Fold these 4 entries.
Entry 1:
Amino acid sequence: MRNLLRFLALGLALLGAVAAHAAQPTSIRAILITASNDKAESDPRLKPYEAELQRNLVFSSFRFVNESSAPIPANGRSTLQLADGHALELEVEKGGGVRVRVVWTHRGAAMMTTSLPLRAGAPAVLVRRGGKDDNVPVVLVFAR
Amino acid sequence: MNCTRAQTSICAARDAALPPAEAAELSAHLNGCAECRAFKTTLENGLARWRAETAAVAVPDAELEWRAVRRRIQAESQRGAFGLPEAWLRPLRWAALPLGAAAAAAVVFFASPDRKPAAERSADVASAQPVTVEVPGDASAMVMVDDRSGWVFVVASDPRPRDL
Ligand SMILES: [Zn+2]
């Protein structure tokens, strides 16, 4: 019985270690885009993302504004400054899988706060639609 | 406009009036697509029920709500969440709309985007993780997980004047 328990404990510890290792991203990257309904040339910097954006969002064109990335420090917290007063406060929550809490502000005003799981290769796409659908800010958040 | 975009628009239109161009595109698509018409009707019915049930939850504690939703999903796994048939859930995969209240928190659950038979899906749902969204003022939010890519879309919208 004791051996069985020891075996189980070892198994759980190993699983935990593997999960923790696989789950910890080393950095977060964000891309700021503006979306609108005007027909426009596609931006080569958005080539890898354009198909999914077109398929899922109701905008006709996407314009790359800028991008920023930061390593995730030990406490999991970091701030990314993007262009035009946009900023992301990030908190990577430890535990099973990568979970990120994002506070998106624009010139100090709250845009949205979200907490979501983030998988490698699949970004979170944050969109803030205002009264008009031109130059709608969109932020792609990646863990890597 | 394809069906995925049409269905995203249908969801967005629940929260705020669509811009005229998008509304026109959507109505053109709906005229020619019985599947999206049915999606719209069922979503409206399902959401009415979802909203009634959500409004009855006094304390929007994510963990409690998640447990309740999970039980309900498991109970309804034959019918699909919100009583929608499985086929209609697939393109949006755990889309949910919050109430348009101040600082509304949307809690959405989704599983990894793999195509498994419905019988295995309740196991997926059990390991699903919630997405929470808070938006300021009277903005509303929608969360969608693309079934094909696994990308998570969080769309917050300011209220629009209904008649533009
Ligand atoms: Zn359709």
Note: Chain B has six helices and four strands.
Entry 2:
Amino acid sequence: MRPFAYERAGDLVSAVTAATIEADSQIRAPIQFLAGGTTLLDLMKIDVMRPERLIDINPLEKSLSEISFDRSGLRLGALARMSAVAHHPDVEREYPVISQALKLGASAQLRNMATLGGNVLQRTRCPYFRDVSWHACNKRDPGSGCSARQGLNRNHAVLGTSDHCIAAYPGDFAQALIALDATVSIAGSKGDRRIPFSDLHRLPADTPHIETTLSPGELITEFHFPARPWARRSLYLKVRDRESYEFAVASAVVALDLADGVVRDIRIALGGVATVPWRSLAAEDALRGKPLDESRAGMAAEAAFATAKTFGGNDFKPELGRATLVRALLAVAMLEVRS
Amino acid sequence: MNVSARAEGGMIGRPTPRIDGRLKVTGAARYPSDVILEDTAYAFLVMSTIARGRIKEFDLTEAQAVDGVLDILTYENTKGKVRKSRYFMRGGYAASSVVPLESPKIWHDGQIVAMVVAETYEAAREAAYKVRVESSAREAAPGFDERRPQPRQTPHIFAGSEPQVGDAETAFQDSDVQIDAYYTTPTQHHNAIELYTTTCVWSGDQLTVHEPSQYVHGLKNGLAKQLGIKPEKVRAVSPFIGGAFGAKAALTSRTALVAIAAKRLNRPVKLVATRQQGFTVSTYRAETQHHIKLGADRSGRLMSLSHEGWEVSSRSDDYKVAGTETTALLYACPNVFTRVNIVHADRSTPGFMRSPAEVPYVFALESAMDELAAALSMDPVELRRINDTRVSPIDQKPFSSRSLRTCYDRAAEAFGWSKRNPVPGSMQDGEWLVGWGCATACYPTNVAPAEARVTLAPNGTARVQTAGHDLGTGAYTAIALTAAEFLGVSLESINVELGDSTLPPAPVAGGSNATASICNAVAQACEDIRDRLARAAVQSGGALRGADATSIRLSRGALVSADGRSEELKESLSRLGFGPIEGFSKYVPEVASLPIRIMGHTLLSRGLPVMTIGTSAGDHVQYAFGAEFVEVRVHERTREIRVPRLVGAFAAGRIVSPTTARSQLLGALIWGVASALHEETEIDERVTRYVNKDLADYMIPVNADIRDVEVILVPEEDHKVNALGIKGLGELGNVGTNAAIANAVYHATGRRIRDLPIRIEDLL
Ligand SMILES: Cc1cc2nc3c(=O)[nH]c(=O)nc-3n(C[C@H](O)[C@H](O)[C@H](O)COP(=O)(O)OP(=O)(O)OC[C@H]3O[C@@H](n4cnc5c(N)ncnc54)[C@H](O)[C@@H]3O)c2cc1C
Ligand code: SF4
């Protein structure tokens, strides 16, 4: 860890003003917001992130941690803690997939600390990224190469990869956000904006170091989930190498609007297998208007991974990803949902 | 001397909560890593990032500019300061024969190339990040070149580690049923919770080292040798150890550097190697390969067993575990062939890790046994029963005791094995495929010379001193129970002191020898006290006048004769002088060879490893055994593997402390799960560097992975192993678990996985 200046945010406006700075991306900016710190401090200790200044946004918690549910949908403040949201009765009842995705992430201690805003901005677990003694990592050091492509890449992505980076997006909650048509409210020194969650993360392409469309100084204030008929019949299935406290090898979000065994509408997102939170429109299209059975589920899974590209260590991932999606689809169809 | 005959009874074998438990849970126990001395300076290591080559140049400008930096050690200013101590497997102390900061040569990734010392930990760390090392790398060999057999590269260093009898190849060819298969186990790291830390402080020419150690006398003597000072000038202190598992036994290269830095600065220096650095600061379990051939007749009787192993070692040392010593005598078999090969690679030197030899070698054999049972359509338990033996098949020496069958019977019953449908894939429960598997656990009974001092006060309290170690194993409790038994006092009156090289020397806490060695030594020291008190008492004019001295026991603060007469301890003691009485013992294992009898205590006091191992215990062989049964569940679609149930039955002679013994076995079974399904240090073979060097990426089971674990202690009496009949069980429980799980996975899925760890992708 290197020396840094620490300050506590006074209010939202001064926080974003203070954090606005020239940098090639928000995540590499020399000024960083400190929320739960479970990603940021970790990466600072291992010298991957080297901010010069931290602005602690926890003083804004009161105004930015609201959890509210009404007819228009669900609002979650960006500073709400993972555990608070996961166990909130409205969330558990109306959006079970959100609650599950949060409960299955990290550990109880981390969930008590970590915020939703920090959660969606958590960084890849690519071991070459996380250890600065590996010189080649385009995400850490643009243009230096990628150690993982021909290295150890069991945990790496098979969807959305580029020649420059194949790192998987590790988070669980973001899969629920992207599946459920969520939007993100953002405050910035140049004004506030609201974007679909699907516009927040960027594919690695040839700039894997630019992970989101946030500018330096922009602060996520809130997530909004619209009310939708498929929200209640939803689930998160996380397949991993141990029972708890582990990132997904493959995961799936499915939210289903089912009428008489026929798919009226459906939302599908895939975790552990893609470079960004990944909604699979191809899989959704394969099911919309069709009965949901084993063979249809299999076809949707095929469609979901049709463009998958593997790198040796992760050759098994398309097959596991398909199995995960099929299992999730069949399980969600069987759910008993009270209206 | 038969000490057990004179025991008061009732203490050894009494279930007792760990006597140091309260200290530990309240934080009162001071581990070496907790030590912070006044005016301490902090050290941080800089490691090589190449596996082979030379350092060309250091650029320390930026690092030295960091506020608070006091000193930076590199080979340029430290060369020649650390003297060579021989490699511990070759009669020295060091975990590797590479001398720290001796030259620009790089032997392996993660080698210490510099150590920064600063006013604070933070400054040292920041400066360490700023040390620039320019080096030239050469192509490095990561380990085995291919997955299959390697050329034999080094002759074995220990005689007798490749047991053979008969003509295994011919017998194999002639066998009705044959199994011929390869197995592998991965690189693994101990990852004890207490990191590799060292604090050194000089007082004049006297050095004190606070370092978590499972061999304080080795640490003291080895460090003295490296620093070129007399051993009595070094004191090593390690009263509690937050896990060691073999990695804190031999002297690592960090310690001398901290001592040198402390001397140069003339103030205490503390080093905390990070979790990541720990992967190469100390040792590890290297990957292994095995070729097993089993031949049997139709009734399941083994006719031929051949086991060839390949192990990875460093360029500098020829470490190997050679587990065929054990696999050759597990079952009756007239024809046995074994061989062990070392493959040298550009890696740090491996070392002991809980059940070093048995974990990989027994995995291979017990997997093959399950394959044989399947080929014979025979129950795997029955196959073990048919091939059980009372003697070593190699030289017909009898086992001192062997309760393998009883262990199988007890564990099978507790597990409900009779309800098993033998057909693979037949026991589905909902979406989960259920598999049941079993395997044999075994571990040699090793015993070492040990010394102990016991001081008994007139008020009936006693102090037991020996430089043994409690790695979390329960040593404090077992030793206290033994002393309480032989002194005839309550457990609360016993105060045990361990883990300090100023105490009478005790052996390395390794090879599961500690309980047997130290408790026998303590019993003898107590006997020394009893004997002196008794002889004085019978010659005196007191109550015990004329009684038979040998029949007098210590009981509840009194001396009691066989005919019921008794005398207060106070009175007996006063006869021998003022105050407490001290008993001392130099225990030599009853089964020790002549050289150990003659030289054992000299070697012990020099901190050199000396031990009578289970396969060379006089006219018999001595082993502890167990049988382990597991249930695994594999999801029918996504193939996650879970282990909801483990049952192990173990027989290990006399159990001194059943509560902590059970904890040992419980933990061992859990580690067995890790060894089958989770643990693997991954190597990027392009550059021979480890990749998953922290606990986020190096997987171990979490609480949610462990459900029902049942430990059964099977009673066993063995008067041959040592006077107290103790076998030791610290390493018994995690032997065979990996095989039991692989066998259960086969039963669940019909897939035979021969390469550990077993992961989702192996079953898709
Ligand atoms: C051991 C471990 C295991 C884990 N396992 C899982 C898992 O299984 N599943 C999973 O999903 N996650 C997992 N995580 C990740 C964890 O969920 C994230 O670390 C956490 O959610 C981050 O939230 P935080 O509030 O601590 O973020 P911080 O560390 O405080 O911030 C992270 C980044 O986001 C920025 N930031 C924070 N808040 C905002 C905001 N409101 N607006 C703009 N920028 C902001 C910060 O500047 C920083 O760059 C794990 C983490 C650890 C350490
Ligand atoms: S996959 Fe991405 S994060 Fe990993 S080494 Fe390559 S560029 Fe870096």
Note: Residues 1-6, 155-159 of chain B have pLDDT under 50 and may be disordered.
Entry 3:
Amino acid sequence: MTVFDVYLQQVINGLNLGAMYALLALGFTLVYGILELINFSHFNVFMVGSFVALYTLEAFGLSGQTVILAGLPLVGVLLVTFAVTMTVTGTIGVGIERFLLRRLRAVKGPAAMITTIGVSYILFNIVLLTVGADTHNFANPLPTVTWAIGGASLRLRDVLIWIVSAVLMIALTYFVQYTKIGKAMRATAQDPEAARMMGVEVDRVIMTAFFLGSALAGAGGLIFGLYYNFTSFLIGFTAGLRAFTAAVLGGIGNVPGAMLGGLLIGLVETIGSQIIGASWADVIIFAILVLVLVFRPAGLLGRIAPNKS
Amino acid sequence: MSRDGSLLLEFTGINTYYGDLHALKDVNYTIGRGEIVSLLGGNACGKSTTMKTIMGVVIPATGTVIFDGKPIEKLPTSERVRRGIAPVLEARRLFPRMTVYENLEMGAYTQPKGPQFNEDLERVYELFPRVKERRNQLSGTLSGGEQQMVAIGRALMARPRLICMDEPSMGLSPLYVEQVFDIIQTINKQGTTIFMVEQNANMALSIAHRAYVLQTGRVVLSGTAAELRENPSIREAYLGELKVDAAA
Ligand SMILES: Nc1ncnc2c1ncn2[C@@H]1O[C@H](COP(=O)(O)OP(=O)(O)OP(=O)(O)O)[C@@H](O)[C@H]1O
Ligand SMILES: [Mg+2]
């Protein structure tokens, strides 16, 4: 491998992680855009998602690296696994909003945010106490198809992660831009009271934001498993914090910003680790965050003065 | 639709509080079908609170709001809009990062999309050719006058029977003020009842049929526009006439 190949490989890896961070960052941004709430429970909804995916794959008889699928069965299993995982995490997100956060919506101050931290730890401990502290091997049913690009290798897994992430992000963009409830989401983010007086049922809009964000976190959890081939009750905090950073970097509340921020953080992580060393990943990521925020406090695509009343 | 003497809105015995602040004190209004009724009053006297109480974003402690013969004070805002009440909000409150067209779509939120939507859109474009020209522009980049046209158009998209306007002339140049009041009269002649908060009492009384005067949360005067125009205390307080002028 030449130096160039090494970096090319890190770009490929970085785009995988970046896609995962982007999916997670969208959940932070959708909820923040409407409620101005940082939803820390998102960290561990993502972690739960990776376990839901793990057990769904096991239900198909897939565990570890033992069974390799191809063609239609592979596509079918993956589609069902994504669908189940996203539905379950989406429902968890809606439950958190409906039964806990909604009651706190009228309360000023940090109560709602603290509640999300509490929920995050509850999810964390439930998983710890039920599935245990061990690292779980994640099923990898993908055939080991690899293409050589120079000295770097592009795997089927990489392509799959990119396609799935791209489809989800395009679908979300379409949803927010063109559907009726998507437009209501944007209107509510810009002026909740005015949106309400247009006849928007704001509760439904908020529920939709939680469902979509949490469903994307579930997809991110499955991608985590496919990428690293393991999962554990611990994965929520590191990935969640990096994804939150991505959302802030892109401009929190801004959908394209979350996608851009996610990809950048993924690339910074892999390329920065290559240059300075993997243990420095967080130092590099957060140094870049601090630098960007000092010079562009609203993030890369954010607006300096949010137009709110 | 014409002014047939039947009531479209009855706002009875309303008391509204913000914490300890008693914003509306036993307030009554009636609005007849087809009328333009104006609500006059100085700053912070409860005009916007009145509008918000009708829309249901502020809930009164006591009192009833009857729209088209049915109590609505317990209904959520969305249901009130569905039944035919639409707002033109104070300071316009468009969705600044949505296009003019999207703002009009938001106005039609409770309406089915289809031929009816296109008809309503054509009507708005006919009333406001300028809005049609600007339909793909982000509404936050429009001038104040243009924004007010979009705000009125947005309300019309809900097919309202009653439009509650909160200071539609606020911050507009005299030319635009004329235009806005003309449009309000046109809309009213086409059959929509108007309840309009104004500080520009002169203009408001020139197009309104009746008016109420609010002072620190209490209705202190009401009557036909003609009566109020002749009322000395109104002339002094709201029509900008000074006693010196009268004496001269
Ligand atoms: N959400 C709120 N919380 C607390 N107090 C409020 C709230 N909204 C209005 N008020 C108070 O209620 C009173 C009436 O306010 P309102 O907005 O109805 O006045 P207004 O007549 O529309 O005034 P303006 O002419 O300035 O628009 C004011 O004293 C205001 O400070
Ligand atoms: Mg007001």
Note: Chain B touches chain A at residues 55, 57, 76-78, 81-82, 87, 89, 93-98, 102, 105-107, 109-110, 113, 140, 154, 158 (CB under 8 Å).
Entry 4:
Amino acid sequence: MGELEVDVAIIGAGVAGLSIARELSRYSVNVVVIERNVDVAQEMTSNNMGLVCQGADSLTFRPGSLHAELNIKSIPLWPKFAEELGVPFKRVGGLGLICHKADYLRFLKMYSRAFKSSLKPNAPYYIPEGSFKPLQFLDRRSLKDLEPNINPRIQGALYDPNLAVIDPVLLARSLAENAKANGVELLFGNEVKTIERKDTYFLVNTNETTVRASFVVNAAGINAESIAEMVGARNFSYVPVKGILTDFDEETSEVFSHQAFYLPRLGDPHIRAVVPIVYGGLRVGIHLDFVLRSDKNIPLQGLEHNLKVVKEVIPDYPFEKHVKRTFYGIMPLTNAEVGWHDFIVDIPEYVPKWVNVILGPAGVSSAPMLGKKVAELLMTSGLYLTPRTDFNPIVERGVKP
Amino acid sequence: MSLVPERITLDTALKIINAMIRFAKDNQVFPGSYAVVDEGGHVVAFERRDIAPVSTADIAIDKAWTAATMKASGRMLEVITRGEAWRLNVKHKGRLTIIPGAIPIIAHGRIIGGIGHSGGSAEEDLKISQAGWTAIFREEDFKEEVEEKLSKARLIARTVMNIVEERNLKPVSIAVLDEWGGLLLLYRMDGAPYGTLELARDKAWTAAAFRNFSEDAAKFYSNHVNNANWNERVTLVPGGVPFSTEETFRGAIGISGNEPEIDKGVAVEALKRLAIKVQE
Ligand SMILES: Cc1cc2nc3c(=O)[nH]c(=O)nc-3n(C[C@H](O)[C@H](O)[C@H](O)COP(=O)(O)OP(=O)(O)OC[C@H]3O[C@@H](n4cnc5c(N)ncnc54)[C@H](O)[C@@H]3O)c2cc1C
């Protein structure tokens, strides 16, 4: 049994925990990241779409929610963030598909609401000029020019040239290496078992170590509920949602190169989207289901749904012959009974010096802003943060965390 | 193969309630009432904590009923009705309760029940109900300690269920009321028809109100009132039994599900096993 004393203990080495760790490494504080797996990004962060919401879709998040705030504030930060971390950031562009006049009206409504909430200089989250190219509506012909293989029955699209894809696993790795190079300690293979709350600190007990920390950040992904319950810091609830995705091989890159999605239909909970993978190939999903956190089952309906979606978008291509793998990720969905998901990033009322971070959908996209938000929260709850002069934002690969 | 329940059984309902109590304690919310209903809006389990206001009981039950039968959460209904929900109250004898804290239980892509909490602020009620719903997606068991009266009531209900199983009787509904006729606990065993719910509750009410076996309550007023219908709660059928535990907790239990005499026998036996006095 080892022992460790730090200012901040972060539980979970997913994109949430690591972007917080990297942000805190700008300051002179002792930080440790505790992770139960033997490497970074083994859970949600490795099983997602890989989208970085940049325009159309972040603007459709409910105005006023943290979900919208963190994502929209992240938009101007992304290019520099990705560059410093040496992660390919590919702007593939997104297509909101229009099948009926009603779809067009819905897009128009979302778009104008988004403008009201974000694009005016006095709006709550103003996006600086230059970091955001305007969206445009495409008619059938210009859509065909852009994507020759698209279903001819699709009448048009809302085109978002900003939308990007990345590899979230690589992002997590770079964040970890950069954080480590700047002094953050990473503890792998340490599952948090119990946490004791003392007067001015927490004792975080893992299967191998005891970490004495003044502040704790709970970024344990789908497990955050149990971690928070250990100290009575659970002031949120979520439903575990299993999202099933299917990857198609690199050859499919030749038939389609944009992200494309349908608007949700009434009575159909599943998402219908096609996303290019950074390294080539297409990723299609998402078949959604409320499950137990430990559910490892991949029902056949998942693959069937995903095949149907890709064939709806690109009808004349033998996608069955290009399936690479079908896999799932389990994400926490808050307010699921009304479908108003929101991030949780806050300090519970009765447990100060503790921050809960629950991301769920579009969590990767909010990474650049998340760290700043949490640093701010920690400061308000009494952590003294002085910037370090020797912080190096550029990742150097091979430091091996 | 998922273990998310297909329908709300008594065990599921109790897990939900325990999870709600756990959440309420963690967040230091004042004790309240907790109700879980099935798809049809009928109570599967209800509990009220000791110092919770008595009238929160029916609010919680009606919230759960509203969520299950409107197939929407109170918050959603508030938005849909734009705060004009009171207009609906002419229907269902005012039972529709469109207040946050009413949550439908969604699983397997459909609504399998409803949850209601009453006793906190609208925001707290909502969070507690959400904690209850999400508990069905968790493997852990929530075994929560509760206050003296409710834990006694739980013990009585457990004992009744054991006796019903031992004797191979038909499943029953069990109501435990406090001295003032306020509902403390209402369980419906899996398979018991929902008609037994109100019967059990009214038998217990009759026993509590007259401090007598439910069937003997007529003695008190039959000379003066020749029709028992003067109060729709009065139920002169065996199965309601008043009790008292060393002066600290007086109340009544009501059981319904079998022939009335058998129900009464079960109630008396349960009290005997727990060494609780039948109070006449
Ligand atoms: C199907 C699907 C598609 C998605 N698509 C997108 C998308 O296109 N764009 C986007 O931006 N986002 C997307 N997301 C969301 C995104 O993946 C998540 O928001 C993000 O990865 C969350 O990261 P995290 O760090 O919070 O969680 P995780 O990556 O799950 O990290 C939590 C970590 O905590 C560790 N942990 C848990 N318990 C303990 C313990 N007791 N002790 C120690 N360590 C513990 C875990 O091992 C894990 O490594 C998608 C999610 C899913 C499921």
Note: The interface with chain A takes residues 1-4, 22-23, 25-28, 73, 75-76, 103-104, 106-109, 127, 130-131, 133-134, 137-140 of chain B (CB under 8 Å).
